Amino acid sequence: MSVQQELIKRLQERSAVIGIIGLGYVGLPLMLRYVELGYHVLGFDNDPSKVEQLNAGQSPIEHIHSDQIADAVGCGLFEATSDMSRASQADALIICVPTPLDRYRQPDLSYVVGTTDAVVPHMRFGQVVSLESTTYPGTTEEELAPRIGSGGLKVGEDIFLVYSPEREDPANPDFKTQTIPKVCGGYSPACQEVGQALYGQVVDRVVPVSSARAAEMTKLLENIHRAVNIGLVNEMKMVADRMGIDIYEVIDAAATKPFGFVPYYPGPGLGGHCIPIDPFYLTWKAREYGLNTRFIELAGEVNSSMPEWVLRKLADALNARGKAVHGSRILILGIAYKKNVDDMRESPAVEMMEYLREQGAVLAYSDPHVPSFPPMREHQFDLEHTPISEETLAAQDCVLIATDHDAVDYDQVQKYAPLIVDTRGVYRDRTDPKIVRA
């Protein structure tokens, strides 16, 4: 039996050990799904405190319950570690690490490259490596394959390489790891077969594509599609605002068309680990081919301008009441990047907080999903969650709704806050002079 056939057999029989590198919003749900099916999972993370937390059966992510982690640890099928030398114990290594942008808005592959370099000395015959991190087309072939092959293992014969982009949507009750189709592209046909065996047991449908590059482009298209449409509706919001038209009424009316229209809703900007970042990966790579992705870049400009537009609306609303931003008490309502999660990555609320702090506002935030402002690479606030109360709301000069969590009592906010700037359409059906739509 060949190396490839033996590995496929182990994956299909669920006797393979699965290594997951990066135990965050992508890695942990994937771990739980493999454990659910009886695979042994070895999780890798470079944060020792997170490793300790997970091995104690505690979850670092709100929407993943600690009892799920405790069950995985308790049944002996999951262990977390920071020791990359143990990569040799895994039959599959699935890389789920961040791919952010650097200060110049260019792709930062340091996490992917650093992770690969760390595990290459410990790779062996008969393993499969899958990259799930969002990246530009060519990363798997140009960055991972040469590194993996540098130790003497031949990719496609001795060791196998695929790209299969993550499609997690944290806290979405309608979809889970099992039910979200999994795109998979191999470095070679042999790699593709192994990749399909790797994921074929844990998801209902594997979607094979012809290459890793095609899979990488698929992920970018998915998120650029959203970014462009959000940019469009955000621009429409600004035009409608100047014309005195309710953009939500327009969207709801347009959505009654049974074909050819998909509703998107405006907001204060883009957040999360994909949509604000992915378009820049493609625009950067396209320049290598002499192309300018003007349509994508324009949508990025519109979306990037939304926090500034919201803040102008806020400043105008305060000015109309004889107040300046400087010295005003402003409560940010919701600082996670989207509703009902604790995920702060690329949250537009943080950008608005930075500006308001620079302008001398007295800031507080209320977010039941974020008990204290977390450490972030580029932002630091020594703030903790302020519970909503009549006294708290009445003491503010303005409440800025940045994220519309379901747990908030918006009737109470409307009753006691003297001024509300609503970026999410919470009060779309209400008329109240103290509510400003932004």
Task: Give the number of DSSP strands.
Answer: 13
- CATH T-level topology of the largest domain: Rossmann fold
Overall morphology: globular
The portion of residues assigned to helices is: 25-40%
CATH class label of the largest domain: Alpha Beta
- Continuous helix count: 14
Give the name of the CATH superfamily of the largest domain: NAD(P)-binding Rossmann-like Domain
- Assembly status: single chain
pLDDT averaged over residues: 94
Q: How many whole angstroms does the radius of gyration measure?
A: 24 Å
The structural class is alpha/beta
Low-confidence stretches: none
Question: Major beta sheet, specifics?
Answer: 8 strands, mixed
Adjacency order of strands in the biggest sheet: 3-2-1-4-5-6-7-8
H/E order of the elements?
HEHEHHEEHEHEEHEHHHHEHEHEHEE
Beta fraction of the residues? 5-15%
Which features characterize this protein?
14 helices; 8-stranded mixed sheet; Rossmann fold; alpha/beta; globular; 5-stranded parallel sheet; 438 residues
